[in-house]
Amino acid sequence: MPIRVLQIDAFTAEPFAGNPAAVCLLPAPAQAAWMQRVAAEMNLSETAFVSPRPAGDGFDLRWFTPRVEVPLCGHATLAGAHALWEEGLLPSDAPARFHTASGLLAAERADGWIELDFPTDPVAPDEPPPELTAALGVRPGHVARSQNRFLIELDDEKAVRSLRPDLDLIAALPVQGVIVTARAAGGTYDFVSRYFAPRVGIAEDPVTGSAHCSLVPYWAERLGKRELLAYQASERGGTLRLRLAGERVKIGGQAVTVLRGELLA
Q: Is 153 a catalytic residue?
């Protein structure tokens, strides 16, 4: 039976920007090995697999990079919700409820944006290992760490944008990825960031919703504000509208479908 597959650019209002995700709309849960092979075939930073739960209890959602399954992904969750509404599998005014490895996640439409409800992933100050400093090739202004990521604050936005890290050294670090961030120059955004995760098959992720589970509490404390506007300064780039709500993070973005097809194998 053919399976509907969409490619959706997330955290952008224009096609061919933001972060592309494949979304497979499954009639029922699938085997992990098969999903991993599909994700490798899609060859995007994330492929989302969405299947309905019994009795209308929302949807199951899993995320795979071309190499591994990951416990949380923002842009592919946003893309999954967008696909459900656009394909008529969920009423346009109904929230999307996803059962995932990171608990129950939700997405709602508001004013042309999609807002995700994610758990925070706070960081604590940490001493950078020599390999991290060598990988970045710059002296970090501040280093912190969550369970799976380093967060590095640099002196300014220019330093973030011009960074050319050694991805082989980053892949050897005992974390899923490295977030690099700085206060934004000018008045449009509060902060900028980039995210590198070669260890899980993503050299540089264009726009990383889950990284903002750490970035939002970090910058909320440093800037003294709970509502933030951020830009992920990858080559494709993307805008995120953010809000800290206790131990949850509201991550807002837009999405555009760029491809529809059927998976035949």
A: no
Rounded Cα distance between 232 and 177, Å, is 15
Q: Burial of 142 by CB count in 10 Å (0-12 exposed, 13-18 middle, 19+ buried)?
A: middle
Cα separation, 251 vs 51, whole angstroms:
23
Whether 3-115+252-263 shares its CATH topology with 124-246 is answered yes
Cβ-proximal residues to 27 (8 Å cutoff; 6+ apart), any chain: 1, 3, 51, 52
Select from 87, 76, 102, 114 the least CA-distant residue to 253.
114
CATH code assigned to 124-246: 3.10.310.10
Asked if 195 and 178 count as a contact pair (C-beta separation under 8 A), the reply is yes
Catalytic residue among 14, 41, 46, 115: 46
Q: How far is 10 from 75, CA to CA, in rounded Å? A: 6
In the structure encoding, which two tokens stand for residue 207, read together? Answer: 């726009």
Q: Terminus-to-terminus CA distance in the chain, angstroms? A: 9
What SS3 class is residue 33?
helix
| pTM more than 0.90 | yes
CATH architecture of 3-115+252-263: Roll (3.10)
* In the chain, where the domains are located: 3-115+252-263, 124-246
Provide block-wise average pLDDT over 10 residues at a time, the chain (265 residues).
95 96 97 98 97 93 96 96 97 96 95 95 92 91 93 96 96 95 94 96 96 98 97 97 97 98 91
